[in-house]
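If you are new to this repository, start here. Below is one unmodified record pulled from the training split, so you can see the exact layout before writing a loader.
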Amino acid sequence: MASLYVTEFGTRLGASGVPTMPPIAQQKVTFTGTAGVSAAFNVATRTIRVQADGICSVRVFSGATSNATTSDMRLTAGQTEWFAVAPGAKISAITNT
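And here is the target side for that same chain:
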């Protein structure tokens, strides 16, 4: 079982690329060959930082559950990415190769 670490921030990253600390919320989404799904992001969340400790595919979505598939964006183990997101959206992750 691997994990996707999600940190939520209330501001979009500006030219400096520096988020406002402390974060609004932090989540740990576990995943295997079955997709894991986060809780809905805080209504004030505008940017998330994600880091996976295993190779995975991720999907950010709003509304009804739309689990990640292995066709979605791939992250390598240890990769860190930043995304602008809609408040209340979720992220899903599934193991990939």
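Two things worth knowing about this chain: The chain has a mean pLDDT of 93. Strands lie at 2-9, 25-31, 36-37, 47-52, 56-61, 73-75, 80-84, 90-95.
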